[in-house]
Specification:
Blueprint: E1 5-11, E2 15-24, E3 28-38, E4 42-43, E5 46-47, H1 50-68, E6 74-79, E7 85-93, H2 104-107, E8 118-119, E9 122-134, E10 151-160, H3 162-174, E11 178-184, H4 185-193, H5 196-201, E12 203-208, E13 213-219, E14 222-229, H6 233-244, H7 248-258, E15 272-275, E16 284-287, H8 288-309, E17 322-326, H9 335-342, E18 347-349, E19 361-363, H10 375-388, H11 412-447
Parallel strand pairs: 1-6, 3-19, 6-11, 12-17, 17-18
Antiparallel strand pairs: 1-2, 2-3, 4-5, 7-10, 8-9, 9-10, 12-13, 13-14, 15-16
Helix pairs in contact: 1-3, 4-10, 6-7, 6-8, 8-9
Length: 448
């Protein structure tokens, strides 16, 4: 049976987020289940321990089985890291305008032959057309309808280390997952948080993940710049954990709840913060101003690196250019203001929305998933469904490679186990309710 089911797995430095959806034309998406679990197999976006990464993926899949009865066999995988490479190139498109004019089918052709899927020891992830030339003319954005068979395309090629890709796929394979495709994470995130108007006017997306900060600039609805900074939210967390000798999970919580990218917090009534030290049974007490200095210094370093990386983008003379800040660490207090003070005042936090794309909509998006930390995994879904619906501009998208499977197909033993869990929960609830009724009756009897 043919099921329109897509699974996306965002395998990050600190977490693995998985979403399973069912889609239908004309672009309606229904979320069937999602999970978030810790990840310990990556460093700065790269898989360094295949077995630990596979364990994290397995754990994510187990959550989907237990809570949503989903048996996932294949998925799209997200990738990022300093090994990712970007370049532009011109290619002549063959077999164009067979009907007399240039059509949409002509311009979405992949200009790269199968033999060209590797360049300079890099495997190509995406080939995104950003401009065209007809009969050697100046660059055009849209040649559809023009009478010519001489059409060239300028393509933004995104490639990655074959070794990094193989480790990612190997991790998924060890967890029982077949790869439907590899998606660059910042490209995915852009589909979840940037509007078409912003992509037209000029928008820099800053996606602060666990191990890296990914940059992608759009103008005239095309990608004109991409970059990666090997600093992410984990570095903020690690600063706190190592300075105060506390567990990284507690450090992550403290970072978001009490950290700040700026020194001055309005109406701040918090004087100190208690933390559970790994060196003592007694909690330690840290002045709030001291913690803020720590997160502020790391924030200022990151913003300086972003400014250096994007110095070619002229924010000063282009007031319509905007920065969209997303990823888990975009939740850090004051980071938006710090960027506003140092790069451009036209900045906002990018949170996933149900109807960002007018052609593709997510129905009943859970509140939990509207957090910027889920921009990438939701963007992976939007990018994939866009490719299926022929809405994505990525000419390397291959619909035929998506596996067709029933996520509700299980062995008899698995189905029995799932039903037993449901019955077990049902009878536990009955017992709990009965005890509450009995206790209530006894209480009333005692009062009489």
């Amino acid at each position: 049976m043919d099921y329109n089911i897509i699974t996306a797995i965002d395998i990050g430095t600190t977490k693995i987020a998985t979403i399973v959806v069912k889609y239908s034309k004309p672009g309606n998406i229904e979320i069937l289940g999602h999970s978030v679990v810790p990840c310990k197999g990556l460093s700065k976006g790269n898989v360094v321990d295949v077995e630990k990464t596979a364990e994290g993926i397995k754990q994510s899949l187990e959550v989907l089985k237990e809570y949503y009865n989903l048996n996932i066999k294949s998925a799209f995988l997200g990738i990022t890291g300093s090994h990712v490479n970007f370049e532009d190139r011109w290619d002549k498109l063959e077999g164009v305008a067979l009907t007399g004019v240039i059509t949409r089918q002509d311009i979405i052709k992949n200009p790269l032959k199968n033999s060209q899927q590797e360049i300079e020891n890099k495997s190509i992830l995406h080939s995104i057309p950003v401009g065209y030339s007809v009969d050697g003319s100046e660059e055009l954005l849209n040649p559809i309808g023009m009478h010519s068979a001489d059409l060239s395309v300028r393509t933004h090629l995104i490639s990655a280390s074959p070794s990094a890709i193989n480790k990612l796929i190997h991790s998924a394979t060890n967890a029982g997952i077949v790869s439907d495709g590899i998606i660059l994470e910042p490209l995915a995130s852009s589909h979840a948080v940037i509007t078409d108007k912003e992509k037209m006017d000029g928008a820099l997306m800053i996606d602060i993940g666990g191990g890296t900060t990914d940059l992608m600039f759009f103008e005239n609805k095309t990608v004109s710049y991409t970059g990666v900074i090997p600093v992410g939210g984990y570095h903020f967390t690690n600063d706190i954990a190592t300075t105060y000798k506390i567990d990284t999970r507690e450090a992550e919580y403290i970072k978001i709840k009490y950290g700040s990218a700026i020194q001055n917090i309005k109406n701040n009534k918090i004087k100190s913060i208690k933390m559970k030290s790994e060196l003592s049974n007694e909690p330690i007490e840290v002045p709030h101003t001291e913690l803020i200095r720590l997160t502020r210094d790391r924030s200022e370093e990151l913003v300086k690196l972003i400014a250096i990386k994007t110095k070619e983008i002229d924010f000063k003379n282009n007031p319509d250019y905007k920065i969209i800040l997303t990823g888990g660490t975009s939740n850090l207090y004051g980071l938006e203001k710090l960027i506003s003070n140092n790069i451009t005042s036209n900045v906002r936090i990018g949170r996933p929305k149900e109807g960002l794309n007018e052609n593709i909509k997510i129905n009943n998006l859970p509140e939990e998933l509207k957090n910027p930390r889920f921009s990438t995994v939701l963007g992976m879904i939007l990018w994939t469904v866009g490719g299926v619906m022929n809405e994505t501009s990525d000419s390397s998208f291959q619909t035929e490679k998506i596996k067709k499977n029933d996520p509700y197909s299980y062995s008899i033993n698995t189905q029995i186990k799932y039903l037993m869990n449901i019955l077990n929960t049902f009878f536990k609830n009955i017992f709990k309710t009965s005890q509450q009724i009995i206790n209530s009756i006894n209480k009333k009897g005692g009062q009489e």
